[in-house]
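=== RUN LOG ===
request id: a7f3
mode: sequence -> structure
chains: 1
length: 281
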Amino acid sequence: GRLDSTNIITPELSVITNISLDHTNILGDTLAEIAFEKAGIIKKNIPVVIGEKHPDTINVFKEKAQAENAPIYFAEDELVIESSSIKDTSLIIDISKNGEDLFSNLALDLTGTYQQKNILTVIQSILKLRELGFIINDEAIYKGLKNVKAITGLQGRWQTLAKNPLIICDTGHNKAGITEVLKNIKNTNYQKLHIVIGMVKDKDIDGVLALLPENALYYFCQPNLERALPSIELAQIAAKHNLKGKAFVSVQEAFQNAKENANDNDLIFVGGSTFVVAEIL
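=== RESULT ===
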């Protein structure tokens, strides 16, 4: 955003993904305030791609782009996902532009539901880079999207760690991220849901916990860092949202307890914080 150290760079293209209430102690308490900070990366005469439209943020981005004479593109206005499905371990997507097929059977190795938002941002950004003279052929796009994890080493994005029981982790840690996680859980077959969760103090704790299902068994934990919310406090706040479970002093202890309690047909989900996920990978 505006105060990020990387903002000293003058880019070829600026990209702003989704805006959610996160880091509110630094960025602001409303989507508009956060959007203002994110819009700080929009540079004079440099095109910008906005990944997701929201009524509270549209004008913030438009006004900043106009002030900087920066061409602005909202990805979801430019491109449409015509179909999406899961096949084996890939998310298969068809994308059109102006009513015509643009990319068919794009296979993504990142299969979370939120990738349907991310992919439009990625493709729109590639189209703008092509216009700027970068040579990026279709073969490179298909190959890159199919091998994101292998190429980048990215982990923790709706990642399956084991089966029987099914163990999945995701680094979603705010309301927007957890909302997408819950969509993925809803699309998953399981008998009983076990959730290993820890959070850090500067997040919207109540906002996240209010979204979580009451019928899951919870294993509250705390990652090994100063910012971690003590698991006892997390369990106490969760109880106000009718979430039941036990508190553990470490991520590993909570994770081990969940594995011991789960049956082969159950789902163990690990998340709530990037730091929690990092400790089990």
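=== NOTES ===
The two ends are 29 Å apart (CA to CA).
Residues 79-152 form one domain.
=== END ===
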